[in-house]
């Protein structure tokens, strides 16, 4: 089971990314589980349930789990990830997924996953705050395995210079991968999937017998 942690500021597109990737991978025969963390509600899990379980029948309900962490979202994924680790065990017992996407509650640029919880970490930033990030840094932005800059469709509305953001991403991440996308229009998502295929070894996983839902 590959555990992919997904971090990023409130509203940057973490759930949208999980929904997109789940559809892509399930259609290719990968068995996907989803674990969401929300601070005060099970909002994201309920949304995923409505979209991917009830409406589109992409995953069975036992492949989805939502945690309500309370308090600080960092704690549940970094200082004391025991609740999440137990939830992963439950998902494994119930449906034994090939990949699990773990969404953190909305955080800031300093959030990270404990290595005991995630094997691979994606940080989702968006352009809505302009182009000062990723240049300003922050450990989540600089140390994550993949930086996804989402909502490039709205960049012109906030005068966000995407070339500056690309150069800054290269510099602060010292060459680690980044990809610029719009999960709304689909722009950049082919590159995103290509990068993740390579990073997560999806083709090898399918050859070894990933079995679909
Ligand atoms: N314009 C635009 N809107 C987007 C894009 N991706 C997501 N959104 C919208 O942005 C809002 C937030 O998206 P979510 O996927 O819920 O973001 P999130 O990071 O999971 O949010 P929290 O879990 O609340 O922190 C939603 O209204 C999405 O429809 C995009 O590429 N472009
Ligand atoms: Mg979300």
From TrEMBL:
GO biological processes:
urea catabolic process
Positions of the CobW/HypB/UreG nucleotide-binding domain: 4-178
Q: Which Pfam families match?
A: cobW (PF02492)
InterPro entries in alphabetical order: CobW/HypB/UreG_nucleotide-bd (IPR003495), P-loop_NTPase (IPR027417), UreG (IPR004400)
Entry's Gene Ontology molecular function annotations:
GTP binding; GTPase activity; nickel cation binding
Q: Does Nucleotide-binding show up as a keyword for this record? A: yes
Task: Give the matching SUPFAM superfamilies.
Answer: P-loop containing nucleoside triphosphate hydrolases (SSF52540)
Annotated keywords? Chaperone, GTP-binding, Nickel insertion, Nucleotide-binding
UniProt family annotation: Belongs to the SIMIBI class G3E GTPase family. UreG subfamily.
Matches recorded under NCBIfam families: ureG
Q: What is the designated name of this protein?
A: Urease accessory protein UreG
The species this protein was found in: Metallosphaera hakonensis JCM 8857 = DSM 7519
Taxonomic lineage from the root: Archaea, Thermoproteota, Thermoprotei, Sulfolobales, Sulfolobaceae
State the encoding gene.
Answer: ureG
């Amino acid at each position: 089971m590959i555990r992919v942690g997904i971090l990023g500021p409130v509203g940057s597109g973490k759930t949208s990314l999980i929904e997109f990737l789940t559809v892509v991978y399930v259609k290719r025969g990968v068995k996907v589980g989803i674990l969401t963390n929300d601070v005060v509600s099970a909002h994201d899990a309920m949304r995923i349930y409505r979209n991917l379980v009830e409406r589109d029948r992409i995953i069975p309900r036992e492949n989805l789990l939502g945690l309500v962490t309370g308090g600080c979202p960092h704690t549940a994924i970094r200082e004391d990830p025991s609740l999440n680790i137990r939830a992963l065990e439950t998902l494994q017992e119930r449906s034994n997924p090939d990949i699990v996407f773990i969404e953190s509650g909305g955080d800031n640029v300093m959030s990270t996953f404990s290595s005991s919880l995630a094997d691979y970490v994606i940080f989702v930033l968006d352009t809505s705050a302009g182009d000062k990030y990723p240049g300003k840094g922050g450990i989540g932005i600089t140390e994550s395995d993949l930086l996804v800059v989402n909502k490039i469709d709205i960049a012109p509305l906030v005068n966000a210079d995407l070339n500056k953001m690309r150069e800054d991403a290269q510099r602060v991440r010292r060459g680690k991968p980044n990809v610029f996308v719009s999960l709304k229009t689909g722009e950049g998502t082919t590159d995103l999937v290509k990068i993740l295929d390579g990073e997560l070894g999806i083709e090898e996983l399918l050859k070894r017998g990933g079995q679909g839902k």
